[in-house]
Amino acid sequence: MKKFAIFDFDGTLFDSIHDVMICLNEALSRHGFPTLTHDEYVKRLGGNIDEIVSLVLKDNNTAENIERVKRTYGEIYDASPKDRTLPFEGMRDVLVELQNKGTLLAIHSNRGTDSIKYFTEKYFQGIDFVAIEGHDPDYPSKPNPYAVKMMEKKFKVAQEEQIYIGDSSTDIKTAQNAEIDCLIVRWGYGFKEDYENGYPLEIIENPSQILKYF
After folding, report:
1. Can you give the residue range of the structural domain that contains 30?
2. Are residues 142 and 47 in the same domain?
3. What are the phi and psi torsion angles at 95 (to 5°)?
4. CA atoms within 13 A on the CB side of 132
5. How many CB atoms lie within 10 A of CB 52?
6. Cα–Cα 20 to 30 A to 20, which of 39, 81, 116, 127?
């Protein structure tokens, strides 16, 4: 049985794409760049903010343009109500159940750490995450296993006791690189090829299915 659950944030714990799309499209418009649709954004998620903005800008992705759009997006996003970013139904109940079992809970994401903490403090009060590892420009982002290995060492958890829970190819690659098991959820921003990938232990249809591994 597993003892350490490492969760991805966007598309796994939270449905967050709507606020990101609104704010990034506003930033693109202010700088005269084309906006994108929901489906176009889904195809560009998974990396850190620099990588996402680069993909969103397409052929306009010069270093200067990335920095301009990223800065404007940050200002718009920080000032926005972010009221469309909500936990997926059933996820809080699963976290409570896992915590009651004594499971170590962590979040690993390419979203900024402060942003993750804002939402967990708002919606997951009472859940004790032993670590929240978001994007840090000084360290490698997912799918590099740097943060997973750091947590493994800090909490002295064996590889076979860990499981990575995500929604996309980035999460599968992260788990593979860390040499730990993973589950992929179907309610996030993954694609058909992710659900057909042979590495995950299971493709989860409902959050409650996670509990059987603990």
Report:
1. 17-79
2. no
3. -60, -40
4. 17
5. 21
6. 127
